[in-house]
Amino acid sequence: VHQSKLDFFCKLGYGKQDICKVLENLGQEALEDDVLKELIRMGSKPQALESQAQPSPLKLVARGSCSALPESKWLGEGESDSPDYLRPIVIDGSNVAMSHGNKEVFSCWGIQLAVDWFRERGHTYIKVFVPLWRKEPPRQDSPIADQHILEELEKQSILVYTPSRKVKGKRVVCYDDRYIVKVAYEKDGVIVSNDHYRDLQNENPEWKWFIEQRLLMYSFVSNRFMPPDDPLGRHGPTLNNFLSKKPVLPEPKWQPCPYGKKCTYGNKCKYYHPERPHQAQLSVADELRAKIKVPLSLGREEEQHNRSP
Questions:
Q1: How far does Cα 226 stand from its chain's mean position?
Q2: If you compute the radius of gyration of the chain from its CA atoms, what whole number of angstroms results?
Q3: Which helix or strand (DSSP H or E) is residue 145 part of?
Q4: pLDDT reported for residue 82
Q5: Residue spans of beta strands (DSSP E) within 23-95
Q6: Residue 306: what are its φ and ψ, rounded to 5°?
Q7: Nearest to residue 44, comparing CAs of 56, 52, 36?
Q8: How far is the C-alpha of 232 from the C-alpha of 250, rounded, in Å?
Q9: Distance between CA 23 and CA 233 in Å, rounded?
Q10: What share of the chain is helix, strand, coil (3-state, %, to 5)?
Q11: Which residues neighbour 153 within 8 Å (Cβ) at sequence distance 6 or greater?
Protein backbone atom coordinates (compact mmCIF):
# COMPACT_ATOMS: atom_id res chain seq x y z
CA VAL A 1 0.00 0.00 0.00
CA HIS A 2 2.83 2.35 0.86
CA GLN A 3 4.59 1.66 -2.43
CA SER A 4 1.41 2.10 -4.50
CA LYS A 5 0.65 5.48 -2.93
CA LEU A 6 4.27 6.51 -3.31
CA ASP A 7 4.21 5.66 -7.03
CA PHE A 8 0.87 7.43 -7.50
CA PHE A 9 1.99 10.76 -6.03
CA CYS A 10 5.40 10.49 -7.73
CA LYS A 11 3.58 10.35 -11.07
CA LEU A 12 1.80 13.56 -10.08
CA GLY A 13 5.22 15.17 -9.72
CA TYR A 14 5.65 15.36 -5.93
CA GLY A 15 8.97 14.53 -4.24
CA LYS A 16 9.48 11.22 -2.40
CA GLN A 17 10.61 12.94 0.83
CA ASP A 18 7.44 15.04 1.07
CA ILE A 19 5.25 12.00 0.35
CA CYS A 20 6.98 9.89 3.01
CA LYS A 21 6.60 12.64 5.62
CA VAL A 22 2.86 12.94 4.94
CA LEU A 23 2.36 9.17 5.06
CA GLU A 24 4.20 8.99 8.38
CA ASN A 25 2.00 11.72 9.86
CA LEU A 26 -1.33 10.47 8.50
CA GLY A 27 -0.63 6.74 8.50
CA GLN A 28 -0.39 4.22 5.70
CA GLU A 29 -4.18 3.81 5.45
CA ALA A 30 -4.85 7.51 4.81
CA LEU A 31 -7.02 8.36 1.83
CA GLU A 32 -5.45 9.82 -1.31
CA ASP A 33 -7.49 13.02 -1.00
CA ASP A 34 -6.22 13.55 2.57
CA VAL A 35 -2.63 12.96 1.46
CA LEU A 36 -3.06 15.44 -1.40
CA LYS A 37 -4.53 18.07 0.92
CA GLU A 38 -1.62 17.62 3.33
CA LEU A 39 0.90 17.97 0.51
CA ILE A 40 -0.74 21.18 -0.62
CA ARG A 41 -0.83 22.47 2.98
CA MET A 42 2.89 21.79 3.35
CA GLY A 43 3.52 23.94 0.30
CA SER A 44 4.86 21.12 -1.81
CA LYS A 45 4.52 21.64 -5.57
CA PRO A 46 4.86 19.25 -8.48
CA GLN A 47 8.17 19.48 -10.28
CA ALA A 48 6.47 20.62 -13.49
CA LEU A 49 4.94 23.64 -11.74
CA GLU A 50 8.22 24.49 -10.05
CA SER A 51 10.05 24.45 -13.36
CA GLN A 52 7.41 26.78 -14.87
CA ALA A 53 7.62 29.14 -11.90
CA GLN A 54 11.40 29.49 -12.22
CA PRO A 55 12.49 32.16 -14.70
CA SER A 56 14.15 30.82 -17.79
CA PRO A 57 17.89 31.50 -17.96
CA LEU A 58 19.02 34.28 -20.26
CA LYS A 59 20.40 33.21 -23.61
CA LEU A 60 23.76 34.70 -24.50
CA VAL A 61 24.37 35.65 -28.09
CA ALA A 62 27.85 36.17 -29.48
CA ARG A 63 28.78 39.76 -30.17
CA GLY A 64 28.26 40.63 -33.80
CA SER A 65 25.97 37.69 -34.39
CA CYS A 66 23.23 38.42 -36.86
CA SER A 67 21.01 35.54 -35.80
CA ALA A 68 17.87 36.64 -33.99
CA LEU A 69 16.40 34.85 -31.02
CA PRO A 70 13.51 32.53 -31.81
CA GLU A 71 11.29 34.42 -29.38
CA SER A 72 11.59 37.64 -31.38
CA LYS A 73 8.63 38.40 -33.65
CA TRP A 74 8.58 40.25 -36.88
CA LEU A 75 6.25 43.19 -37.22
CA GLY A 76 2.98 41.86 -38.52
CA GLU A 77 3.17 38.49 -36.75
CA GLY A 78 2.46 39.62 -33.21
CA GLU A 79 2.97 43.34 -32.76
CA SER A 80 0.54 44.49 -35.43
CA ASP A 81 -2.29 42.67 -33.64
CA SER A 82 -1.62 44.30 -30.25
CA PRO A 83 -3.90 47.19 -29.22
CA ASP A 84 -1.03 49.71 -29.49
CA TYR A 85 -0.79 49.08 -33.23
CA LEU A 86 -4.52 49.33 -33.99
CA ARG A 87 -6.07 52.60 -35.12
CA PRO A 88 -8.80 54.36 -33.10
CA ILE A 89 -12.33 53.76 -34.38
CA VAL A 90 -14.93 56.54 -34.73
CA ILE A 91 -18.40 55.25 -35.69
CA ASP A 92 -21.15 57.34 -37.28
CA GLY A 93 -23.93 56.04 -35.03
CA SER A 94 -26.84 57.50 -37.00
CA ASN A 95 -25.53 56.10 -40.29
CA VAL A 96 -24.93 52.62 -38.83
CA ALA A 97 -28.26 52.47 -36.99
CA MET A 98 -30.32 53.60 -39.98
CA SER A 99 -28.44 51.22 -42.26
CA HIS A 100 -29.22 48.28 -39.96
CA GLY A 101 -32.87 49.38 -39.77
CA ASN A 102 -33.26 49.49 -43.58
CA LYS A 103 -33.39 53.33 -43.46
CA GLU A 104 -36.80 53.07 -41.77
CA VAL A 105 -35.96 52.42 -38.09
CA PHE A 106 -33.10 53.74 -35.95
CA SER A 107 -31.82 50.29 -34.91
CA CYS A 108 -29.48 50.59 -31.93
CA TRP A 109 -28.67 46.89 -32.27
CA GLY A 110 -26.69 47.70 -35.42
CA ILE A 111 -24.43 50.02 -33.38
CA GLN A 112 -23.85 47.22 -30.86
CA LEU A 113 -22.91 44.80 -33.67
CA ALA A 114 -20.34 47.25 -35.05
CA VAL A 115 -18.83 47.93 -31.60
CA ASP A 116 -18.58 44.18 -30.84
CA TRP A 117 -16.84 43.55 -34.17
CA PHE A 118 -14.07 46.05 -33.41
CA ARG A 119 -13.81 44.88 -29.81
CA GLU A 120 -13.14 41.33 -30.94
CA ARG A 121 -10.29 42.61 -33.11
CA GLY A 122 -8.70 44.22 -30.06
CA HIS A 123 -9.42 47.92 -30.64
CA THR A 124 -9.41 49.77 -27.34
CA TYR A 125 -10.43 53.26 -28.53
CA ILE A 126 -13.99 53.08 -29.93
CA LYS A 127 -16.29 56.10 -30.02
CA VAL A 128 -19.86 56.28 -31.34
CA PHE A 129 -21.48 59.68 -32.04
CA VAL A 130 -25.28 60.01 -31.88
CA PRO A 131 -27.42 63.19 -31.67
CA LEU A 132 -28.75 63.96 -28.20
CA TRP A 133 -32.38 64.02 -29.32
CA ARG A 134 -32.20 60.25 -29.85
CA LYS A 135 -32.61 60.01 -26.07
CA GLU A 136 -36.19 61.21 -26.41
CA PRO A 137 -39.06 58.69 -26.62
CA PRO A 138 -39.61 57.35 -30.15
CA ARG A 139 -42.26 58.89 -32.38
CA GLN A 140 -44.07 57.70 -35.46
CA ASP A 141 -41.94 59.83 -37.78
CA SER A 142 -38.67 58.69 -36.10
CA PRO A 143 -39.02 55.15 -34.67
CA ILE A 144 -36.19 53.77 -32.51
CA ALA A 145 -35.55 50.10 -31.71
CA ASP A 146 -33.58 48.77 -28.71
CA GLN A 147 -33.08 52.23 -27.24
CA HIS A 148 -31.68 50.75 -23.99
CA ILE A 149 -28.46 49.87 -25.87
CA LEU A 150 -27.61 53.57 -26.08
CA GLU A 151 -27.70 53.84 -22.28
CA GLU A 152 -25.45 50.80 -21.87
CA LEU A 153 -22.89 52.12 -24.37
CA GLU A 154 -22.96 55.53 -22.67
CA LYS A 155 -22.13 53.89 -19.32
CA GLN A 156 -19.17 52.16 -20.98
CA SER A 157 -17.85 55.57 -22.22
CA ILE A 158 -18.24 54.45 -25.83
CA LEU A 159 -21.30 56.47 -26.87
CA VAL A 160 -21.03 60.26 -27.12
CA TYR A 161 -24.11 62.44 -27.63
CA THR A 162 -23.71 65.49 -29.85
CA PRO A 163 -25.52 68.52 -28.38
CA SER A 164 -29.04 69.56 -29.37
CA ARG A 165 -31.77 71.67 -27.76
CA LYS A 166 -35.22 73.12 -28.36
CA VAL A 167 -35.79 76.81 -29.01
CA LYS A 168 -39.45 77.93 -29.08
CA GLY A 169 -40.57 74.39 -29.77
CA LYS A 170 -38.09 73.86 -32.60
CA ARG A 171 -35.20 71.45 -32.30
CA VAL A 172 -31.73 72.93 -32.84
CA VAL A 173 -29.27 70.17 -33.72
CA CYS A 174 -25.51 70.54 -33.98
CA TYR A 175 -23.84 68.98 -36.99
CA ASP A 176 -22.68 65.59 -35.69
CA ASP A 177 -20.71 64.78 -38.87
CA ARG A 178 -18.24 67.53 -38.02
CA TYR A 179 -17.67 65.95 -34.60
CA ILE A 180 -17.02 62.57 -36.22
CA VAL A 181 -14.50 63.80 -38.79
CA LYS A 182 -12.74 66.14 -36.36
CA VAL A 183 -12.21 63.49 -33.66
CA ALA A 184 -11.09 60.86 -36.17
CA TYR A 185 -8.67 63.34 -37.77
CA GLU A 186 -7.16 64.37 -34.43
CA LYS A 187 -6.81 60.75 -33.26
CA ASP A 188 -5.46 59.60 -36.65
CA GLY A 189 -8.15 56.93 -36.67
CA VAL A 190 -10.75 55.43 -38.99
CA ILE A 191 -14.27 56.67 -39.74
CA VAL A 192 -16.92 53.92 -39.96
CA SER A 193 -19.72 55.18 -42.18
CA ASN A 194 -21.29 54.87 -45.62
CA ASP A 195 -21.53 58.66 -45.87
CA HIS A 196 -18.95 60.47 -48.04
CA TYR A 197 -19.07 63.82 -46.12
CA ARG A 198 -18.74 65.80 -49.35
CA ASP A 199 -19.66 69.09 -47.67
CA LEU A 200 -16.87 68.65 -45.11
CA GLN A 201 -14.40 67.68 -47.85
CA ASN A 202 -14.98 71.06 -49.48
CA GLU A 203 -14.42 72.89 -46.18
CA ASN A 204 -10.93 71.65 -45.43
CA PRO A 205 -8.41 70.14 -47.90
CA GLU A 206 -6.76 68.14 -45.07
CA TRP A 207 -10.12 66.65 -44.15
CA LYS A 208 -10.69 65.84 -47.82
CA TRP A 209 -7.56 63.68 -47.98
CA PHE A 210 -8.35 62.11 -44.60
CA ILE A 211 -11.91 61.17 -45.56
CA GLU A 212 -10.75 59.70 -48.85
CA GLN A 213 -8.06 57.57 -47.18
CA ARG A 214 -9.63 56.66 -43.81
CA LEU A 215 -13.31 56.04 -44.55
CA LEU A 216 -14.36 52.46 -43.85
CA MET A 217 -17.60 51.41 -45.52
CA TYR A 218 -19.61 48.39 -44.39
CA SER A 219 -22.66 46.19 -44.96
CA PHE A 220 -25.05 44.24 -42.75
CA VAL A 221 -25.68 40.65 -43.82
CA SER A 222 -28.18 38.80 -41.60
CA ASN A 223 -27.32 40.84 -38.48
CA ARG A 224 -23.63 40.52 -39.23
CA PHE A 225 -21.42 43.60 -39.52
CA MET A 226 -19.16 43.13 -42.55
CA PRO A 227 -16.60 45.71 -43.71
CA PRO A 228 -14.87 45.03 -47.05
CA ASP A 229 -11.55 43.19 -47.27
CA ASP A 230 -10.28 45.93 -49.63
CA PRO A 231 -11.51 49.26 -48.18
CA LEU A 232 -9.71 51.41 -50.79
CA GLY A 233 -10.29 49.19 -53.81
CA ARG A 234 -8.66 46.19 -55.39
CA HIS A 235 -5.20 47.76 -55.55
CA GLY A 236 -5.36 49.32 -52.06
CA PRO A 237 -4.35 47.94 -48.65
CA THR A 238 -6.00 44.97 -47.00
CA LEU A 239 -8.43 45.42 -44.13
CA ASN A 240 -5.80 44.43 -41.55
CA ASN A 241 -3.32 46.98 -42.91
CA PHE A 242 -6.06 49.60 -43.16
CA LEU A 243 -6.87 49.23 -39.45
CA SER A 244 -3.23 49.05 -38.31
CA LYS A 245 -0.92 51.98 -37.55
CA LYS A 246 2.08 50.11 -39.00
CA PRO A 247 0.89 48.11 -42.01
CA VAL A 248 2.79 45.05 -43.19
CA LEU A 249 3.92 45.47 -46.79
CA PRO A 250 3.37 42.41 -49.00
CA GLU A 251 6.23 40.87 -50.91
CA PRO A 252 6.44 42.06 -54.54
CA LYS A 253 5.04 39.55 -57.01
CA TRP A 254 6.56 39.68 -60.48
CA GLN A 255 4.10 39.21 -63.30
CA PRO A 256 5.53 37.11 -66.15
CA CYS A 257 5.75 38.69 -69.57
CA PRO A 258 2.82 37.65 -71.78
CA TYR A 259 5.11 37.51 -74.86
CA GLY A 260 7.63 35.17 -73.24
CA LYS A 261 10.77 34.58 -75.31
CA LYS A 262 9.27 36.50 -78.25
CA CYS A 263 9.43 39.78 -76.30
CA THR A 264 11.45 42.48 -78.13
CA TYR A 265 11.49 45.12 -75.35
CA GLY A 266 14.62 43.78 -73.69
CA ASN A 267 15.68 45.66 -70.57
CA LYS A 268 12.82 48.11 -71.11
CA CYS A 269 10.24 45.40 -70.52
CA LYS A 270 8.48 45.89 -67.18
CA TYR A 271 7.47 42.22 -66.90
CA TYR A 272 9.45 39.29 -65.51
CA HIS A 273 11.39 36.95 -67.80
CA PRO A 274 12.31 33.67 -66.07
CA GLU A 275 14.55 32.59 -68.97
CA ARG A 276 16.99 35.46 -68.36
CA PRO A 277 17.15 36.09 -64.60
CA HIS A 278 20.84 37.05 -64.28
CA GLN A 279 21.80 38.36 -67.69
CA ALA A 280 21.18 41.85 -68.98
CA GLN A 281 17.84 42.11 -70.74
CA LEU A 282 18.74 43.41 -74.19
CA SER A 283 16.37 43.86 -77.05
CA VAL A 284 16.69 41.64 -80.12
CA ALA A 285 18.12 44.51 -82.16
CA ASP A 286 20.77 45.24 -79.50
CA GLU A 287 21.71 41.56 -79.33
CA LEU A 288 22.21 41.43 -83.13
CA ARG A 289 24.34 44.57 -83.05
CA ALA A 290 26.45 43.11 -80.24
CA LYS A 291 27.01 39.88 -82.19
CA ILE A 292 28.04 41.83 -85.33
CA LYS A 293 30.47 44.15 -83.50
CA VAL A 294 32.47 41.31 -81.96
CA PRO A 295 33.78 39.70 -85.21
CA LEU A 296 34.43 43.14 -86.78
CA SER A 297 36.58 44.20 -83.86
CA LEU A 298 38.49 40.89 -83.94
CA GLY A 299 39.21 41.33 -87.68
CA ARG A 300 40.56 44.86 -87.18
CA GLU A 301 42.91 43.67 -84.41
CA GLU A 302 44.30 40.93 -86.70
CA GLU A 303 44.93 43.43 -89.54
CA GLN A 304 46.78 45.78 -87.19
CA HIS A 305 48.81 42.87 -85.85
CA ASN A 306 49.87 41.82 -89.39
CA ARG A 307 50.83 45.36 -90.41
CA SER A 308 53.00 46.05 -87.33
CA PRO A 309 56.05 43.89 -88.33
A1: 15
A2: 36
A3: strand 144-145
A4: 45
A5: 89-92
A6: -70, -35
A7: 36
A8: 16
A9: 72
A10: 45, 15, 40
A11: 111, 112, 115, 128, 159
Q: What is the pLDDT of residues 275-295, one digit of tens each?
A: 766 555 455 666 667 667 655
pLDDT of 4 > 60? The answer is yes
Average pLDDT, the chain: 76
DSSP state letters, 187-231: HT-EEE-S---HHHHHH-HHHHHHHHHHEE--EESSS-EE--S-T
Spatial distance between the Cα atoms of 177 and 197, rounded to a whole number of angstroms: 8
- Higher-confidence position of 306 and 10: 10
To the nearest 10°, the Cα dihedral for 174, 104, 108, 242? -80
DSSP assigned state of 46: -
Q: What is the pTM of this model?
A: 0.55
**How many of the other CB atoms lie within 10 Å of CB of 75?**
13
Q: What is the mean pLDDT of residues 287-308?
A: 58
